[in-house]
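My current task is to audit a protein record that another person submitted. Alongside the sequence sits a line of tokens, each denoting a local backbone shape. Please read both lines and tell me whether the tokens look consistent with the sequence. Do not assume that whoever made the record got everything right. Thanks in advance; the entry in question is below.
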Amino acid sequence: MRFAIAFLMLAGLHSQPMRDPAQLVGAIRAKLRPMTQRLANYACIETIDRNYYRNQDEPASCKAATATKLQSTDRIRLEVTVSQGSELHSWPGATRFDTRSLDEIVTGGGPISAGAFATYLLDVFDNSGVTFHFTGESPAALEFSFHVPIEASHYHVKVGTAWHATEYDGEFWVDPQSLELQRLSIRTEALPEATSMCETATALEYHRVHIGDGDILLPSRGTLHIWMRNGRQDTNAIAFSDCREYQAESQLRFDAEGDGAATARLPVRSPLATTIGLPIVLALESAVDTDSAAAGDPISAKVVKPVSRAGYANPVIPAGATVRGRITRVEHHLLPTPFFLVSISFNRLELTGISSPFAARLDRDDELAKQLGANVAPRGRGLESWDVGNFVFVTGKKRYVMPAGYESQWFTLATPPR
């Protein structure tokens, strides 16, 4: 009796018509197309935790390039959307997206990659040059592999100052019933030697998010692995959060000036009549916790004491004024000496309802950072081009908190008007 029932069930399964792989791919692409076309209506916060692994000895070849020792970590936070098939980024809270490439915005060392939010999807599923293969079926997912030849690829790697397309392969998994995309993985191999990279691998997970009046398929998290020719391995853990509809009143920024920080919309006046080198004591308005803080986060501080110029009775900047800017670096170095590096830049001062350009620098820990092996030199046109204060905390702890009210003495850099 049991045997007969089992046999009938098995016979019933085999009597079902096999699904045609080409039709499945067509149905999946048709299901994704309305989603990808709507991605330009949305923006998300993208947080990137970067881990840097090292080997003691440089490997003889890429096949031997396996790093095992975690040397340092850092964190970056951005806002991301897509326009005309390309991803656009800004710092969190900015009023405008920046049209420069991501490596021009996030400057100075460390791996950074665009594509996880939208353009990988577009390049794989809206690309007629991609070939697909059905590789397996389970109760949980249908699995496919794909290949993107170099002539159809929009995946670019940087060699010096030039970008070069590369071919890549990958897999994706969809729900057997709904054909909803669950996961996507991408691999590049045999990258040009000039890139200093052996290969890269990206994995992304997707979920439906209800925003406004509808649902949209968006990435929830992902990873990027990069294997370097010198034995180094860099890993990015990517998380998307706080997704929203991209409002029409938002703007694109086509220049490289300023940071576009979305602080209160205050009237703007010319720089304050300060001189270079005036001491200014600032107290943080909120804590900076290395477990959660990231480069790009807005930050503010209060002026603790009046700032005066010699020979003038009235202070240039009264106590209680607010300065605003962003965190520019949050790093945790483990080898050889464990320490945290937090860098902060301020560029606006708010006083009596008026916002003014502001510049100051803090050099207290720069020499210590260099002794410990952290390069604190200015890095270019991104956040690091602002006037910076570097804070170094030598500790074996896994976390460090600069509490609200933390005081530090800076020095003004603004020049007096003529």
About this structure: The helical segments are 2-15, 21-38, 102-105, 119-125, 366-372.
